[in-house]
C-alpha cells in the first residue's frame, strides 16, 4: 500500500494521461494473496465453504478494502485536478511562446531602426562637415580668377620680388595639392590644368627675372672690362669676372631657390618636368653668361701655354700646365656657382657644364696627342691623371675626394684620347718590332747578341724610350735608392743590359711594352693586346728557331745551345706574362677568303671548269667569304711550345750522351758489347757535366735546371733499359755469353750511377752559388 502511494505521488509531476495501476500492482496486496494461495495449496484438509462462511468473508473483505477504495477514489479525484492544472499550464506555455516571438520581432525592428538611425546620423555628420568645409573649399576655387588675372597682366618680371607674388605662388601650390587630394570634385581636371598653367607662368616669371639679372650683370662686367682693356693685370680682370659678378648672387639665390625647391617638391612631382625645363633654362643662361666672360681669357692662356711648351717634352708639359689651369678654373667656377645656386639641388648641373667649359682644353690636348708618336710620353701623360681614378665611383673615399668638382669626369675625355692613341701606337710598335721582325742566324747565340751583322745594336736601350724605361725601372726596383748615383749601380745596370741582350730582341721589346702600358688602359683592352703580343712573340720565336736550326749543319752541342736559348726565351715570356694577370683566351673573328684565293689560283694554273660541275649560283655561293670565330688561348700555345722544346732538348741531350753505344750489328761479339758499355759510362762522366754547364749558362732557375737534368736521366735510363732487355733476349738466343752479360751494369745500378753524377753536379753548383752570395 505504501509503495503504491509512493508510486502515485512520484508520477504526479510527470503524468501524461496514462491509465491507473491495477490492484495487482500493489506489492503488499500481492504478497498477501501469494501467502493465501500457498496456504490453500498446502492445506491437506480442504473443506468447502458454506454460505455463512462466504458471507463472513465478503463482510470482512468489504471492511478491509473500503479504505483502499476510498484512497483510489481520492487518487482519481486528484488526477482529474492534475489534468486541469496541466491543461492550464499548456495554455500558459503557449501564451509565453507567443509573447517571446513577439519580443523577437520587436527586437529585430528595434535593430533595424538603430542601424537606420546610425546611417542617418553618419550622413548628417558628413553633410554637417561638408557644410562647414564648403567655405574653406570655395576659397581654392575662388582664388583662381584673381591669380590668373594678376599673372596675365604681369608686364614686368620684377613682380617676383614682391611678397604678394610669393604668397600667390604658395596659394597656387596649395590649390594644386588640394585638387590632387580631391579628385572626385566636379570639373577637377579643368581646375587642375588652370592652376598648373598659373604655376608654370609664375615659374617663367621667376626665370625671366633671373635671366634679366644675369644679362644686366654681364653687361656691367663686360663694359668694365672693355674700359680697362689696356690694363694687363690678371688680378683686376679676375676681380671683375668673379667679385663684381658675385654681387647679384644673394638676390639670384633667393629666387632660384624657389624654383629648385618646387622642382624637388614631392607634392609637385607631377609637374616636375615643366619646372625642370624652366630651371634648366636658368642653368643654361648662367653657364652661357659665364662662358662669354671666360672665353677670351681661356683662349689667351691656352695660346700662352702652346707657345711656351715646345720640344721633346711638349706634350707632357703642355698637358700638365693646362690641366693645372683648368683644375683651378673649375674650382673657382664651382665656388662662384654655389653662391648663385643651392648646392643641395644643383650640384650635378655644374659638373656637367665643366665638360663644355673644358672643350678648348680637350681640343688643344687632342691635337697634340694625335701628333705624339712616343709611347713613353703617352704613358707619362696618362700618369698625370692616375690620381683621379684611384677610388671606385660612389665609394666613401670617392665622395670625400671629389666633394666639390668631379675631376675624374672632367678629365675623362683627355684620358680616353690618350688611351686610344696609346693603343694605336702600341699596335704599330708590335707590328714593327715583333710581327715584321726578321730574325738572323745568330738570334739565339749569346756571344753574338751585342751587335747585329750590319753593326747596329738589336736592342737600342738609349734611343728606344720603351726599352730605356724598362731597364731603368728594373734596375731601380732591384736596388736601394742610396745606390742610384753610385758606380755599383751603373755596373748593375750594365749587367742587366747584358742579360736583356742575351734574349730574343722582339721578346724583350714585347715585355718592355707590356710593362709600360700595364694599368694605363682598360683591363679588357690590355688583355686582348697582351694576348696578341704573346701569340706574336711565340710565333716569331718559333720561326727564328726553325730558321736557325735549318741553317746550322752542326747537330751537336750547337743544337743544344739553340734549344736552350729557345727554352730560355719561352721561360722568360711565361715568367713575365704571369705578372700581368692576363685573361689569355679570346675570340678572334675574321673573314676566310681561302675559297676566292683557290678559285683565282685555279684560273691562273689554266684549269677548266665543267658546266655540269659548276653553275653561276654555286660558284657565287662558294666564293662568298666565310666568317670564322676562332677561340685562341695564348697560354696553351706557350705551354705547348715549352713542352715541345723540353722534349726536343732532352732527346738531343740523351743522343749526345749515348751516341752509338746502343747500336750492335748482328756480327758484333761480347768484346764490342763491353767496350761500348765502357764508352757509355765514359760519355756520361764526360758529357753530362758539359751539358749541365750548358743548361746552367742559359737557365738561371735552379728548379728548372734540376727538372731538365731529371728529364735527361729519365730518357737515358729508359733507353738503357730497352737496350739491356734486347741484349738479354739476344743472350737467351745464344748470341752472347753469360760472362759478357755479367759485365754490363744492371738497370738499377745504371740508374743509380747516372743519378749520383747528376746530384753531384747540382750540389756543386749550389755550393758555388752560395759562395758567390
Automatic annotation (TrEMBL):
Statement: the UniProt record of this protein carries the keyword Disulfide bond: no
Coiled coil regions in record: none
GO cellular component terms listed in the entry, alphabetical order: cis-Golgi network; Golgi membrane; Golgi transport complex
One GO BP annotation of this record: cytoplasm to vacuole targeting by the Cvt pathway
Organism field: Vanderwaltozyma polyspora (strain ATCC 22028 / DSM 70294 / BCRC 21397 / CBS 2163 / NBRC 10782 / NRRL Y-8283 / UCD 57-17) (Kluyveromyces polysporus)
Entry keyword set: Golgi apparatus, Membrane, Protein transport, Transport
InterPro entries listed in its UniProt record: COG3_C (IPR048685), COG3_N (IPR048320), COG_su3 (IPR007265)
Sequence intervals crossing the membrane: none
Family: Belongs to the COG3 family.
A single GO molecular function term of this UniProt record: cargo adaptor activity
Conserved oligomeric Golgi complex subunit 3 C-terminal domain boundaries: 239-596
Subcellular compartments: Golgi apparatus membrane
Pfam families: COG3_C, COG3_N
Domain of life: Eukaryota
Occurrences of domain Conserved oligomeric Golgi complex subunit 3 N-terminal (ranges): 71-215
Name used for this protein in its record: Conserved oligomeric Golgi complex subunit 3
Organism classification: Eukaryota, Fungi, Dikarya, Ascomycota, Saccharomycotina
Recorded topology in the membrane: Peripheral membrane protein
Amino acid at each position: 500500500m505504501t509503495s503504491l502511494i509512493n508510486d502515485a505521488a512520484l508520477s504526479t509531476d510527470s503524468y501524461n494521461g496514462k491509465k491507473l495501476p491495477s490492484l495487482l500492482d500493489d506489492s503488499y496486496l500481492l504478497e498477501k494473496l501469494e501467502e493465501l494461495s500457498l496456504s490453500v495449496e498446502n492445506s491437506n484438509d480442504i473443506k468447502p465453504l458454506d454460505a455463512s462462511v462466504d458471507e463472513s468473508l465478503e463482510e470482512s473483505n468489504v471492511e478491509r478494502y473500503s479504505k483502499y477504495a476510498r484512497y483510489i477514489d481520492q487518487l482519481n479525484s486528484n488526477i482529474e485536478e492534475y489534468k486541469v492544472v496541466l491543461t492550464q499550464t499548456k495554455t500558459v506555455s503557449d501564451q509565453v511562446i507567443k509573447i517571446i516571438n513577439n519580443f523577437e520581432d520587436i527586437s529585430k525592428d528595434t535593430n533595424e531602426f538603430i542601424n537606420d538611425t546610425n546611417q542617418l546620423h553618419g550622413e548628417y555628420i558628413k553633410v554637417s562637415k561638408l557644410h562647414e568645409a564648403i567655405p574653406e573649399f570655395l576659397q581654392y576655387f575662388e582664388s583662381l580668377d584673381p591669380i590668373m588675372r594678376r599673372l596675365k597682366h604681369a608686364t614686368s618680371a620684377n613682380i617676383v620680388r614682391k611678397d604678394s607674388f610669393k604668397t600667390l605662388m604658395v596659394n597656387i601650390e596649395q590649390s594644386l595639392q588640394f585638387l590632387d587630394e580631391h579628385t572626385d570634385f566636379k570639373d577637377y581636371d579643368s581646375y587642375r590644368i588652370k592652376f598648373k598653367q598659373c604655376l608654370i607662368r609664375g615659374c617663367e616669371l621667376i626665370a625671366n627675372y633671373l635671366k634679366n639679372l644675369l644679362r644686366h650683370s654681364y653687361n656691367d662686367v663686360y663694359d668694365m672690362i672693355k674700359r680697362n682693356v689696356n690694363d694687363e693685370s690678371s688680378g683686376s680682370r679676375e676681380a671683375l669676372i668673379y667679385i663684381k659678378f658675385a654681387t647679384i648672387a644673394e638676390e639670384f639665390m633667393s629666387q632660384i631657390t624657389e624654383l629648385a625647391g618646387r622642382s624637388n617638391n614631392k607634392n609637385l612631382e607631377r609637374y616636375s618636368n615643366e619646372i625642370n625645363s624652366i630651371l634648366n633654362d636658368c642653368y643654361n643662361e648662367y653657364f652661357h653668361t659665364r662662358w662669354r666672360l671666360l672665353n677670351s681669357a681661356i683662349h689667351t692662356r691656352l695660346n700662352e701655354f702652346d707657345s711656351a711648351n715646345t720640344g721633346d717634352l711638349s706634350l707632357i708639359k703642355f698637358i700638365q700646365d693646362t690641366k693645372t689651369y683648368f683644375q683651378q678654373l673649375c674650382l673657382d667656377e664651382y665656388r662662384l656657382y654655389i653662391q648663385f645656386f643651392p648646392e643641395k639641388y644643383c650640384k650635378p648641373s655644374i659638373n656637367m657644364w665643366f665638360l663644355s667649359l673644358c672643350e678648348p682644353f680637350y681640343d688643344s690636348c687632342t691635337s697634340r696627342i694625335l701628333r705624339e708618336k712616343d709611347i713613353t710620353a703617352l704613358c707619362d701623360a696618362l700618369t698625370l691623371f692616375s690620381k683621379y681614378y684611384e677610388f671606385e665611383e660612389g665609394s666613401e673615399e670617392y665622395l670625400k675626394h671629389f666633394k666639390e668638382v668631379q675631376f675624374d669626369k672632367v678629365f675623362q675625355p683627355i684620358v680616353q684620347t690618350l688611351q686610344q692613341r696609346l693603343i694605336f701606337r702600341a699596335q704599330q710598335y708590335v707590328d714593327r718590332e715583333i710581327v715584321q721582325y726578321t730574325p738572323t742566324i745568330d738570334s739565339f747565340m749569346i756571344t753574338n747578341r751585342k751587335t747585329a751583322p750590319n753593326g747596329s745594336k738589336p736592342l737600342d736601350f738609349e734611343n728606344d724610350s720603351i726599352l730605356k724605361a724598362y731597364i731603368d725601372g728594373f734596375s731601380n726596383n732591384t736596388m736601394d735608392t742610396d745606390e742610384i748615383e753610385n758606380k755599383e749601380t751603373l755596373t748593375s745596370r750594365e749587367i742587366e743590359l747584358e742579360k736583356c741582350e742575351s734574349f730574343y730582341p722582339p721578346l724583350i721589346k714585347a715585355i718592355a711594352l707590356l710593362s709600360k702600358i700595364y694599368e694605363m688602359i682598360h683591363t679588357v683592352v690590355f688583355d686582348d693586346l697582351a694576348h696578341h703580343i704573346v701569340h706574336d712573340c711565340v710565333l716569331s720565336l718559333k720561326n727564328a728557331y726553325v730558321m736557325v736550326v735549318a741553317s746550322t749543319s752542326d747537330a751537336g752541342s750547337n743544337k743544344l745551345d739553340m734549344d736552350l736559348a729557345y727554352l730560355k726565351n719561352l721561360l722568360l715570356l711565361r715568367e713575365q706574362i704571369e705578372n700581368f694577370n692576363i685573361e689569355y683566351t679570346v675570340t678572334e673573328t675574321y673573314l676566310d677568303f681561302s675559297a676566292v684565293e683557290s678559285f683565282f689560283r685555279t684560273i691562273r694554273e689554266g684549269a677548266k671548269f665543267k658546266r655540269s660541275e659548276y653553275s653561276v649560283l654555286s660558284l657565287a655561293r662558294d666564293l662568298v667569304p666565310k666568317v670564322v670565330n676562332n677561340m685562341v688561348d695564348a697560354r696553351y700555345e706557350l705551354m705547348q711550345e715549352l713542352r715541345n722544346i723540353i722534349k726536343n732538348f732532352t732527346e738531343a741531350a740523351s743522343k749526345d750522351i749515348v751516341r752509338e753505344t746502343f747500336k750492335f750489328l748482328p756480327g758484333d761479339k761480347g768484346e764490342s758489347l763491353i767496350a761500348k758499355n765502357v764508352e757509355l759510362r765514359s760519355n756520361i762522366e764526360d758529357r753530362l757535366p758539359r751539358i749541365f754547364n750548358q743548361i746552367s749558362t742559359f737557365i738561371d732557375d735552379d728548379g728548372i735546371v734540376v727538372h731538365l737534368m731529371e728529364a735527361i736521366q729519365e730518357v737515358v735510363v729508359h733507353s738503357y733499359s730497352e737496350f739491356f732487355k734486347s741484349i738479354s733476349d739476344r743472350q737467351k738466343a745464344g748470341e752472347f755469353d753469360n760472362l759478357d752479360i755479367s759485365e754490363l751494369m744492371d738497370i738499377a745500378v745504371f740508374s743509380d750511377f747516372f743519378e749520383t753524377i747528376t746530384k753531384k753536379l747540382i750540389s756543386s753548383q749550389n755550393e758555388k752559388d752560395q759562395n758567390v752570395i
